[in-house]
Amino acid sequence: MISASDVLAFALELVAVAALTTWGWRTGGWLGAGAALLAFAVVWGTFLSPRAALPVTGAAWPVAKFAVFAVAAAALTVVAGAVPAAAFLGLGLLSVILGGTR
Hints:
Keywords: Membrane, Transmembrane, Transmembrane helix. There is one protein chain. It is built from 3 helices and no strands. It is an all-alpha fold and about 100 residues long. It has one domain. The longest helix is centred in the N-terminal third of the chain and has 45 residues, at about 5-50. The protein is globular.
């Protein structure tokens, strides 16, 4: 069953992808957008996704997840401003707290 915290986490992941890709586009055009998207996909898919090849577990998992959200918030600050980035980071922290560890 899909919980509200799962929906929140997925929505934040989509916003993170959009923020990082937009930041990449603004700083490096197509190459920057592609590199930012690829970097996010590799990190998330390798370490943080539910079917990660090398999953981060235990207490390191929420720290790693929040670190990725923090990087996305930094990109969102450049793209959309400080207020949306702060809201995103607050929701990211909530998602990490609700998600616990794995």
